[in-house]
Amino acid sequence: MSDYTIPAGATIGHVHLKVSSLQRSVAFYRDVLGFELQMMYGDQAAFLSAGGYHHHVGLNTWESAGAEPAPRRAPGLYHVAFLYPERRDLAAAVRRVLEKGVALTGASDHGVSEAIYLDDPDGNGIELYRDRPRAEWPRNPDGSLTMFTRRLDLDELLALA
């Protein structure tokens, strides 16, 4: 057993997804979710980000051009989660998704966070969420963290947008 633990400051830098249509996926991540296109790698890959970073989302068709989505019950990515800095930012993002006609697959209050779920055009799960301040995270009597899944009041959230 190793005594190594990943440093507390480590973060997930980006996700790179196999997609069936690069143009369709770029349009979704750019025009629906609002990521900025940073670079096209020919006609087979694209890199998008928030705030000018080199990329938060990589998309490619190297092995997947024209392919059907992976079966729901197959191993693989469950969802990628995009963290918004403020509740108002999350509300604006969700309003944009809905205005673009994208269906939500869920909306949950997890105690530590508020999360909205949807799928990209290839069926990859997406979570749009915001964390509550750590001081508000629900704790058990022994101080350990407790999380749950409760219905999120979507109308209340959207009222902030």
Could you characterize the architecture of this molecule?
The protein has a 5-stranded mixed sheet, with helices on one face. The chain folds into 2 domains: 55 residues, 2,3-Dihydroxybiphenyl 1,2-Dioxygenase, domain 1; 85 residues, 2,3-Dihydroxybiphenyl 1,2-Dioxygenase, domain 1. The N and C termini lie far apart (48 Å). The protein contains 3 helices and 9 strands; from the N terminus they run βαββββαββββα. It is 18% helix and 28% strand. The protein has 161 residues and is an alpha+beta fold.
Write out key terms for the chains shown.
alpha+beta, 4-stranded mixed β-sheet, 3 helices, 2,3-Dihydroxybiphenyl 1,2-Dioxygenase, domain 1, 161 residues, single chain, 2 domains, 18% helix, 5-stranded mixed β-sheet
Strand order of the largest sheet: 5-8-7-6-9
Distance between the termini: 48 Å
**Helical content (DSSP H or I, runs of 4+):** 10-25%
CATH architecture of the largest domain: Roll
Secondary structural class:
alpha+beta
Report the mean per-residue pLDDT as an integer.
Answer: 96
Largest sheet: 5 strands, mixed
* Spans of at least 5 consecutive residues with low confidence: none
What's the number of domains?
2
**Silhouette:** globular
Percent range for β-strand residues: 25-35%
Name the helix and strand elements from N-terminus to C-terminus, one letter apiece: EHEEEEHEEEEH
Number of helices: 3
Any idea of the CATH topology of the largest domain?
A: 2,3-Dihydroxybiphenyl 1,2-Dioxygenase, domain 1
Number of separate strands:
9
Radius of gyration: 17 Å
